[in-house]
Amino acid sequence: MMSTSDIERLLQAIAISSGANGIIVAHQQRLEAFQSLEQFKSYPGRVTSCIELIGRRSILSVIGSDNVDVTVSAKLYALGIIEEFLKIGYSGLNESDRGQLRTSILLAARQLSVPSAGALPGD
């Protein structure tokens, strides 16, 4: 299981890589964020961590002194990681884990499809 600080580093990397809230960072920070995201792809607990991420209602990351909403970017990244896993390791899961994975993916999809509060129809 990832530590709280590891999860925060991952979320910061997602925020930087996605340019969340117009974040402007140095080229070196962007490279480090990319490397962190690539390293996470080989982390043994990545699927469990992704299931946890997509199950969250909202996801915030601290960049500097700002709380940055990375909910959509983090869930899309997590779904991408899970998609790659499904191509390779899904058949090795027991039925209970498969069911939990399916439920988590559907939950994330429902959450991503709900318009944000205050959004006008057609936005």
Draw up the topology in text.
Blueprint (H helix, E strand, L loop, with lengths): L3 H15 L8 H14 L5 H9 L5 E4 L2 E4 L1 H18 L6 H19 L10
Antiparallel strand pairs: 1-2
Helix pairs in contact: 1-2, 3-4
Output the keywords.
globular, 5 helices, single chain, mainly alpha
Quick summary of this structure?
The chain has 123 residues and is mainly alpha-helical. Helix content is 61%, strand content 7%. It is built from five helices and two strands; from the N terminus they run αααββαα.
Structural account:
There is one protein chain. With 123 residues, the protein is mainly alpha-helical. The chain has five helices and two strands; from the N terminus they run H-H-H-E-E-H-H. Strands 1-2 form a two-stranded antiparallel ribbon. Strand 1 (60-63) and strand 2 (66-69) form a beta hairpin. The longest helix is centred in the C-terminal third of the chain and has 19 residues, at 95-113. The termini are far apart.
